[in-house]
Amino acid sequence: MIEARNIELSINGKTVLNKVNLSVQPGTFTAIAGPNGAGKSSLLKILSRESTRYTGQVQINDISVSSYSVAQLSAVRAVLPQHTHVQFPFSVKQIVEMGRHHFKTTTKQNKELLEEVMELTGITDWANRNYLTLSGGEQQRVQLTRVLAQVWDLKTFPRYVLLDEPTSSLDIAQQQLIFSLVKKACERNIGVLAIVHDLNQAVQFADHLHFMRNGSVIAQGESRKVFTKPIIEETFCCRVNVYHDPCTNCPYIVPERTTLSTLKTISV
């Protein structure tokens, strides 16, 4: 399990995170939602150990994240940032192979694992294509494949995938595909944490939801239990209506048209 306790972060005197507690269980998909500036990406950077300037505790599988070496950390967690910049004309296969950089598995084992993951994400036919010629959505799928390749080995210990807005700028079909792949990863004792903006997709796929605002967690719990009109309106300062799909009973929101006068009536 990834467990964060009493995480606090201030930058230039401004509180970015305020006593945040969060856990990610292996085999489950946890989503974080909140408005811009809520502290979501800052929290993800702390959980991945990209950032170390905070107070509080972060543990991965009952070991302090600060105790891991780089190689050890790469074996238990993989990270997909919001933007991944590639300047050189690597092939798709070479990009995916980067996810195996720290592993001492044999060439045969690597080849079999890479083939399995690329087949799963549907990019096998792109293997020799120049990564820079792909569309933004295609590049995102390749980067997700790289991340999955990093933790795809069957191990006795849990592993984790941390995703920062993995479906931003993707069309709806690509978004559904990405989240379906994430759910598939959970079947391999992998815990997934993703920052999301599409609440309807979050409640459709995620097992647990955390709502954040102004550096604090407003609500957290099973997705369908915390996906309520009061919590969503408090988090986003936006009037919404919550409905339920008649076939699946899955809730979804439809925002009300917002005016400046309406915004002023919602508590910030």
Structure, described:
The protein has 268 residues and is an alpha/beta fold. The chain has one domain (2-264): Rossmann fold (3-Layer(aba) Sandwich), CATH 3.40.50.300. The chain has 10 helices and 12 strands. α4 (107-121) packs across α5. The protein is globular. The two termini are 33 Å apart.
Q: Outline of this structure?
A:
The protein has 268 residues and is an alpha/beta fold. The protein is 34% helix and 28% strand.
Shape: globular
Alpha-carbon distance between the two ends: 33 Å
- Biggest sheet: strands side by side, in what order? 6-7-8-3-9-10
- Number of strand elements: 12
Fourth-level CATH superfamily: P-loop containing nucleotide triphosphate hydrolases
Q: What would CATH call the class?
A: Alpha Beta
Outline the low-pLDDT stretches. none
CATH architecture: 3-Layer(aba) Sandwich
Q: According to CATH, what is the topology?
A: Rossmann fold
Summarize the amount of helix as a percent range: 25-40%
Sheet with most strands: 6 strands, mixed
The overall average pLDDT, rounded, is 91
Please indicate the percent range of residues in DSSP E strands (runs of 2 or more).
25-35%
Radius of gyration: 19 Å
**Protein structure class:** alpha/beta
Q: Helix-strand pattern, N to C?
A: EEEHEEHEHHHEHEHEEHHEEH
Tally of individual helices: 10
As for the number of domains, it is: 1
Q: What order do the helices and strands come in, and which of them pair?
A:
Layout: E1 2-11, E2 14-24, E3 29-33, H1 40-47, E4 55-60, E5 63-64, H2 70-76, E6 77-80, H3 92-97, H4 107-121, H5 136-151, E7 159-164, H6 172-186, E8 190-196, H7 199-205, E9 208-213, E10 216-222, H8 223-226, H9 229-236, E11 240-244, E12 251-255, H10 260-264
Parallel strand pairs: 3-8, 3-9, 6-7, 7-8
Antiparallel strand pairs: 1-2, 1-4, 4-5, 9-10, 11-12
Helix pairs in contact: 4-5
